[in-house]
Amino acid sequence: MAILSVLQYPDPLLRRKAKPVVDINDEIKAIVADMYETMEVEHGVGLAATQVGITWRIFVMDVSNTRDQRICAINPEILSREGTQQDEEGCLSVGHGLGVYDKVQRAAKVRLRALDLDGNVFELDADKLMAACIQHEVDHLNGILFIDHLSRLKQERIRKKIEKHHNRL
Ligand code: NI
């Protein structure tokens, strides 16, 4: 297993749209194992393949406090969305460690359909943090970042904050 490096905004590779996985082979399984490890080390609740420069439609998440409820979603689809919620989000790819968080409006409940690592289809009803996380990660696979959901002004502020930090390095 290996810890993968997480692409950082404004890396254009974060804007690529990921392709469906056609065969869950050993290579895909190895990628997922590395993604789990990377998510743990970086203290993320979710990680999409796009963030580590891999353009397969895969994300991993663990929204539990105990860090023992890992979910891997391959070729995820959001079947339905219900209601709205607004909660603080951050991202391992957007000024991670710089305190970049903002409130994002999302559906309050979603139904997810995906393949697991054995290639079996599963469906999952999620709300609260898990629902937000699923929407955030599926966005990543479509090249969308959480800041895209914010006002222009807020996006500009975040961009400047990250730029300022990089100039100091
Ligand atoms: Ni993210």
Order of SSEs: HEEEEEEEHH
At the first level of CATH, what is the class? Alpha Beta
Helix content: 25-40%
Bound molecules: nickel (II) ion
Here the CATH topology equals Peptide Deformylase
Radius of gyration: 15 Å
Side by side, the strands of the main sheet go: 1-2-3-6-7
Quick one: how many beta strands? 7
The CATH superfamily name is: Peptide deformylase
Overall tally of structural domains: 1
Low-confidence stretches: none
Largest sheet: number of strands, sense, barrel closure? 5 strands, antiparallel
Mean pLDDT across every amino acid position? 96
Q: What is the CATH architecture descriptor? A: Alpha-Beta Complex
Summarize it.
The protein has helices spanning 26-41, 128-141, 152-168; strands at residues 46-48, 58-61, 71-82, 85-89, 102-106, 109-115, 121-127.
How would you sum up this structure, described in words?
- Helix content is 28%, strand content 25%.
- The chain has 169 residues and is of the alpha+beta class.
- It has a single domain, classed as Peptide Deformylase.
- The chain has a five-stranded antiparallel sheet. It has a two-stranded antiparallel ribbon with strand order 4-5.
- Strand 6 and strand 7 form a beta hairpin.
- The longest helix has 17 residues, at 152-168.
- 34% of the residues are buried.
- Bound molecules: nickel (II) ion (NI).
